[in-house]
From TrEMBL:
It comes from Thermophagus xiamenensis. It catalyses: (2R)-O-phospho-3-sulfolactate + H2O = (2R)-3-sulfolactate + phosphate. The lineage of its organism: Bacteria, Pseudomonadati, Bacteroidota, Bacteroidia, Marinilabiliales. The gene is comB. Belongs to the ComB family. Signal peptide: none annotated. It is an enzyme of class 3 (hydrolase). Its EC number is 3.1.3.71. This is Probable 2-phosphosulfolactate phosphatase. Its cofactor is Mg(2+). Keywords: Hydrolase, Magnesium. Coiled coil: none annotated. GO terms for molecular function: 2-phosphosulfolactate phosphatase activity; magnesium ion binding; sulfopyruvate decarboxylase activity.
Length: 239
């Protein structure tokens, strides 16, 4: 397998993803929310770029639709929930369609439209995702980042998935320099991921808003055994 990583949605180009297996990661918090919602019974997640797109989708598609998202970590006026995985309880999301827009995560998904296949990953379902990726030939991991820039938590998650693949594939795994760097960052920090991640700007923003429980949850490695992927433009659980 050839494995590359991209450090922010702003660095994604059609040429870097076309014909490849892409994996979008937004630990804090978009992909953690998506994985949790699908694990807890949501039918699908519809990623959109703007609140207006979300409102329009709900207007045109009737009931059993939840609007979920944030701008600068705050709930969007008129939405049902903010971008918190803890809001995605079974009682809230079972048999619901989640329409979602976030500052970074949904941009990363849209940026990777040209990918042959697209998966959604987080620390929550990293191992399950890596098991699927191990069967592929050409993979690119995409960190959503924050406002077009590098984030520590997404890169650590890319490094974790890379490390899992290296353990599985050994010499059959070919890493770019960027993938090697992400893996080494994870290896150096794996005994206390939060200690390093907590120095990051986006982590500190969420902490300043009192979202400590969200943060702890999003760093629960391999707590969900679920693979999430794009099907006809929607994010669904692999059955």
């Amino acid at each position: 397998m050839n494995l590359d990583v991209i450090f922010s949605w702003s660095e994604v180009t059609p040429e870097r993803v076309k014909g490849r297996i892409a994996v979008v990661i937004d630990v804090l918090r978009a992909t953690s929310v998506m994985v949790t919602a699908l694990n807890n019974g949501a039918l699908k997640v519809i990623p959109v770029l703007t609140p207006d797109e979300a409102f329009e989708y709900k207007k045109n598609n009737g009931k059993d639709i939840l609007l979920v998202g944030e701008r600068h970590a705050d709930i969007i006026e008129g939405f049902d929930f903010s971008n918190s995985p803890l809001d995605m309880s079974p009682i809230s999301v079972t048999n619901q369609t989640v329409v979602m827009t976030t500052t970074n995560g949904t941009k990363a998904i849209r940026a990777a439209e040209e990918a042959k296949e697209l998966y959604i990953a987080s620390f929550l379902n990293a191992r399950s995702t890596a098991q699927i990726l191990a069967q592929q030939d050409d993979v690119v991991l995409i960190a959503s980042g924050s406002n077009g820039s590098f984030t520590m938590e997404d890169t650590l998650c890319m490094g974790y998935i890379t490390n899992l693949l290296e353990s599985e594939l050994g010499n059959a795994l070919g890493l770019t320099d960027a993938a090697l760097a992400a893996r080494q960052l994870f290896i150096n920090a794996q005994q206390n991921l939060l200690a390093l991640a907590s120095q990051g700007k986006h982590y500190r923003l969420l902490k300043s808003k009192g979202l400590d429980d969200d943060i702890r949850y999003c760093f629960s490695l391999d707590s969900i055994n679920l693979v999430c992927y794009r099907k006809n433009g929607e994010i669904v659980a692999l059955k």
